[in-house]
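Hello,

Following up on my earlier ticket. Below are the two sequence lines again, exactly as submitted.
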Amino acid sequence: MLSLALPGASWAHRLPVGVKLAGLAVVMVGAMQLRDPWVIALALVGLVGLYASLGRAGLAAGLRAARSLFWIVAVILLWHLVTDQARLGLTLGLRVFLMVGLANFVTLTTPLPELIALIEWLAQPLSRLGLSPRLPALSVALMVRFIPILQGRFGQLGLAWRARSRRRPGSRLLAPLSFSLLDDAEHLAEALRARGGLAPRKQGKD
Amino acid sequence: MERNFTLVILFAALIAVLGLVPPIPLTFGVPISAQSLGVMLAGAVLGSWRGAAAVLVVHGVVALGLPVLAGGRGGLGVFTSPTVGFLIGWLPAAFVTGLVVERMRSLRVGIAAGIGAVIGGIVVLYLCGTVGLMVVLDKGPFEALMLSLPFIPGDLIKAALAGWLTQTIARYRPGALLSRA
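Thanks for your patience. The regenerated structure is below:
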C-alpha cells in the first residue's frame, strides 16, 4: 500500500505542510466563488502549470486523479445540457476539476511522514484524556498494515472455494472473512497488551 | 480497551479492502462497490460510537493520501469532489446503523442490523450525499437526489447482506458483537 504522494524534492515538497494546508483552505474558499467558466478555465490552466512544475510524473499523477472524475463530470454536463443550462454545467464541471486538482496537489507533494508528524502534534491533547498521543498514528499504521493481510486472506478463501465448486463465490466468502478478521482483532489486542497497551507512557520511562 | 481498539482498526481495514473488490455492475449498468457494506457492518457489529470511529480512521487514512477508496481514490481531493457528502456521510451512517442495533434489542440482531443498515446506510447516507451534491454543484434537493437514485437498488442488497452477516457473526463469534454487548 503506497501513499499517493510523489517521491521527490520539488519546490512544493519543500514547503512546510502547515503552509500548504492553510494555502489550500484559502484558495478553496476563493475557488468556490468563481462563477465565470472562462475564469475557471484560466485557473485550470494555472493549475496544470503547477502540476507541470513537478515534472512529467506530476502531470501523470494529476491526470490519473482527474480521470476518476470523468463520469461524474459527464453526468453533470449531460444534466445541464438536457435542462438547457449549458453555461452553468460548464462552470460546475470545470470547478470540480479545479477543486479536486488543487487538493490533490497538496497530497502529491506532502510525504506521509510529514503528515503523520502533523497528526501526532495535533493529537497531543489526547494525553489529557488518558489516551496515548500515539493513538492516531498507531491506528493508521495498523490499518494500513492489515489491508494486505485481509486482502491475502480474501484471496486464499477464493482459492479454497474454487477448489470445491465451479460456481462463483459471490458474497459467500464474506462470513469466513469476517470471522478471520474478528480472530485477528483478538490476537492483535493480546499483542498490544503484552507491549504495554494503549495507556500513555509514564514520564521518564522511555 | 485494547480489544475494542483493534476491532475498530480491523473494521476500518475491512472497509478499505471491500473497496478493492471489483465493482459488480448491476443489470442496468450502474456499478456498485462493496465499500458501504463495510460501513453498515462496522456500525451493526461495533455499535454506534465504535462504528463511527472505524469510519473516522478510514477518513483519516484517505486524507493522508492513501488510495483506500473504491477505484483507488484517496487524498484531499476526494473531500472537495461532488461526492464528498457520501464519504462524510459514512460517519452518521455507521453511527445510526449501530444505534438501531443497540436500541432494538427485542428484535433478532440480524433483522435489527438490516433495518439499521437501511436507515443509516441508505436514508441517512443519501441525505448527506444529497446535501454534498447540493453544496458542491449549487443544486436543489430534487435534482441532487436524482443523480444518486440509480445506486439505491444495490444498496438495498448490501443492507440485506449486512443483516445476514451480523446474524452470522452473532451466532459464531458472539463475543465480538459489541453493539449488543
